[in-house]
């Protein structure tokens, strides 16, 4: 029941099951960007579910700054994924950071947080170390928790990024693009966009709200060297409609 | 799929959450949420039931008009009528004085005939078929709210002050945030207030309401502590989330940096904005029917999504704020006046400011 027919999003992410390596996201950084009008949290839910169910050895570290566990639990249950059970099996490490704050610019707090993540990863058995997914919901709140010290947040992310190369972790982070659109040099988002291997962006339809199309999604997959030794970017653009038990993806205009 | 002991099926309904008739002012909504009324029947209807407990509601003010006060007053009055504790913070010298301006609920007796008095005239008319569904919906919600003495949502008479007996008692807490750049004090007040409403699976004794007016107004002297303000809103939001309370915060976005304002908007669960309409806007007057009765426009930018990932898509996001008989606040969809079609474009841009003008980087 968890291996549904692949959809446009999984295709764009390269998550289509080809038998040999079902979890192709290891070692990659995924950045999700959204705006006030169109929230992209559904992508986090999807990736959380995929990370937990594609491989039985996958472990997810979830940094929750925006919602309490009960919210994710209810949402994921409707998607067919029992977070409470995964938590018990130590497949999901849920860091409830809804109320946590890092005073004094956040340096020590973020260092401690990284230490916590590192400890979790070091504590895993060798097999599980290969497929760890770190999900952050969301970065703008991490900045607020660090009292505006974006540079410390960026340092924290660089540290997390090293995990992707050392252990082959997947790093998934959500951020709100419209916060930074009016800023002069938004270092945080620019660095992240540079680091990201896959950039996903949700936007409302240019024509406004509609009940059957909830927004458009652009996926930029900076594909690494392929077999022939070429690197190429692939851009996917499609519309989506969010439902309780999943999300429909379709090409623009394919809905009458 | 592994199942935990506590729940046998993913889709089992939580039976403890059965509406109990002895807690007035609470209504059970989808996904295990509980609503309290905003104090404006039409707004409750628009939002699908009211404000969900545990949500942070933000209202973006019109810097030149006090329309946000209409929403705030009704929200506060409704809570007092339901005997729900209230925390009110405002940048005035004497926040308690504001309680004297709260509107009074429409008395029960003439409620019955008055509330329907715009219906009978319609009942006599033949209703065009495409509007029938709205009419039925309308009737139904009126009937729902009218069972028993304690209604979920009252109509408030803006010209009649709230009776004294609602204002006495220990459940009202007022805080002045004037010349008070120390946000720690406000945070502590909110924290102690919210601890009265812990969320535990079971029955709910009461729900709390927090109303913070013009949070970043210049007289609060917060201008150089934007990160402290953000951090206060964040902690308010997280405290609210795990309690049975609702916070309504109004703020003038024009006083904030655009990027900070966006951060505020992202933190809101329900995001509304109010805007005054100019008195003599000939162009608008020609475009919209009932322009003379309008006092302003209300925009719904975001509706709280608690325990769900599905966004609420409304039929319309812009509503006109009207005063019925100069007393009762009503919200109506905008109706385009039947004139030549050439004005269609300007209607779209002037009246529905929520429609995004941004086009995607990739278009077809």
TrEMBL record, chain A:
InterPro entries, alphabetized? ELP6 (IPR018627), P-loop_NTPase (IPR027417)
Gene3D superfamilies for the chain: P-loop containing nucleotide triphosphate hydrolases
Pfam name, any one: ELP6
SUPFAM superfamilies to which the protein is assigned, alphabetical: P-loop containing nucleoside triphosphate hydrolases (SSF52540)
Query: Pathway membership of this protein?
Result: tRNA modification; 5-methoxycarbonylmethyl-2-thiouridine-tRNA biosynthesis
A cellular component term (GO) from this record?
elongator holoenzyme complex
Regions annotated as coiled coil? none
Q: Which domain of life is it from?
A: Eukaryota
Instruction: Report the record's Gene Ontology biological process terms.
Output: tRNA wobble uridine modification
The Swiss-Prot or TrEMBL record describes its family as follows: Belongs to the ELP6 family.
Q: What is this protein called?
A: Elongator complex protein 6
UniProtKB/TrEMBL annotation, chain B:
Bias (Basic and acidic residues) = 107-122
Keyword Transport attributed: no
GO BP terms = tRNA wobble uridine modification
Domain of life (superkingdom): Eukaryota
Q: Which Pfam families match?
A: PAXNEB
**Where the protein is mainly located, per its record?**
cytoplasm
Q: Give compartment(s).
A: Cytoplasm; Nucleus
Q: Which SUPFAM superfamilies match?
A: P-loop containing nucleoside triphosphate hydrolases
Family membership? Belongs to the ELP4 family.
The molecule here is called Elongator complex protein 4
Q: Which organism is it from?
A: Juglans regia
């Amino acid at each position: 029941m968890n291996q549904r027919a692949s959809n446009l999003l999984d295709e764009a992410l390269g998550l289509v099951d080809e038998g040999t390596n079902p979890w192709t996201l290891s070692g990659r950084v995924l950045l999700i960007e959204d705006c006030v009008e169109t929230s992209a949290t559904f992508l986090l839910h999807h990736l959380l579910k995929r990370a937990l169910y594609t491989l039985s050895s996958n472990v997810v570290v979830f940094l929750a700054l925006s919602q309490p566990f009960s919210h994710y639990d209810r949402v994921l249950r409707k998607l067919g994924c029992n977070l409470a059970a995964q938590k018990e099996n130590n497949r999901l490490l849920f860091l409830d950071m809804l109320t946590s704050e890092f005073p004094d610019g956040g340096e020590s707090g973020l260092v401690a947080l990284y230490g916590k993540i590192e400890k979790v990863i070091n504590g895993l058995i060798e097999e599980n170390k290969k497929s760890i997914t770190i999900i952050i919901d969301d970065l703008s709140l991490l900045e607020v928790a660090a009292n505006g010290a974006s540079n410390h947040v960026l340092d924290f992310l660089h540290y997390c990024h090293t995990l992707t190369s050392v252990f082959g972790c997947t790093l998934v982070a959500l951020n709100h693009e419209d916060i930074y659109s009016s800023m002069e040099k938004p270092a945080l988002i620019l660095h992240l966009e540079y680091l990201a291997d896959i950039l996903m962006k949700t936007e409302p339809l240019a024509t406004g709200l509609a009940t059957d199309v909830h927004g458009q999604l652009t996926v930029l997959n900076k594909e690494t060297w392929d077999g022939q030794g070429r690197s190429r970017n692939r851009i996917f653009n499609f519309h989506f409609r969010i439902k309780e038990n999943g999300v429909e993806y379709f090409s623009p205009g394919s809905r009458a | 799929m592994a199942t935990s002991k506590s729940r046998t099926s993913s889709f089992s309904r939580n039976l403890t959450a059965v509406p109990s008739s002895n807690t007035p002012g609470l209504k059970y909504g989808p996904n295990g949420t509980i609503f309290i009324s905003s104090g404006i029947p039409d707004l409750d209807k628009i939002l699908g039931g009211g404000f969900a407990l545990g949500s942070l509601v933000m209202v973006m003010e019109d810097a030149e008009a006090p329309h946000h006060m209409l929403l705030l007053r009704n929200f506060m009055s409704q809570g007092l009528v339901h005997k729900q504790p209230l925390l009110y913070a405002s940048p005035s010298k004497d926040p308690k004085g504001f309680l004297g301006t709260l509107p009074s609920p429409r008395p029960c007796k003439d409620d019955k005939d008055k509330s329907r008095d715009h219906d009978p005239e319609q009942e006599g008319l033949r209703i065009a078929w495409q509007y029938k569904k709205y009419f039925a919906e309308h009737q139904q919600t009126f009937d729902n709210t009218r069972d028993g003495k304690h209604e979920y949502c009252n109509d408030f008479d803006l010209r009649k002050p709230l009776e004294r007996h609602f204002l006495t008692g220990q459940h009202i807490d007022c805080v002045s945030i004037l010349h008070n750049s120390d946000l720690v004090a406000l945070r502590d007040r909110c924290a102690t207030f919210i601890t009265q409403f812990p969320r535990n699976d079971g029955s709910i004794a009461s729900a709390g309401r927090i109303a913070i007016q013009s949070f970043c107004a210049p007289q609060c002297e917060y201008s150089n502590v934007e990160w402290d303000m953000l951090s206060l809103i964040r902690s308010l939001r997280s405290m609210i989330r795990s309690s049975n309370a609702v916070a309504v915060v109004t703020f003038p976005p024009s006083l904030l940096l655009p990027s900070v304002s966006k951060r505020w908007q992202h933190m809101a669960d329900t995001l509304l904005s109010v805007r005054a309409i100019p008195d003599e806007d000939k162009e608008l007057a020609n475009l919209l029917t009932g322009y003379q009765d309008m006092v302003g426009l209300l925009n719904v930018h975001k509706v709280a999504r608690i325990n769900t990932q599905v966004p609420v898509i409304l039929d319309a996001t812009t509503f006109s704020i009207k005063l019925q008989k100069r007393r009762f606040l009503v919200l109506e969809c905008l109706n385009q006046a039947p004139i030549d079609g050439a004005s269609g474009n300007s209607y779209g841009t002037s009246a529905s400011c929520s429609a995004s003008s941004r086009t995607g980087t990739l278009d077809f």
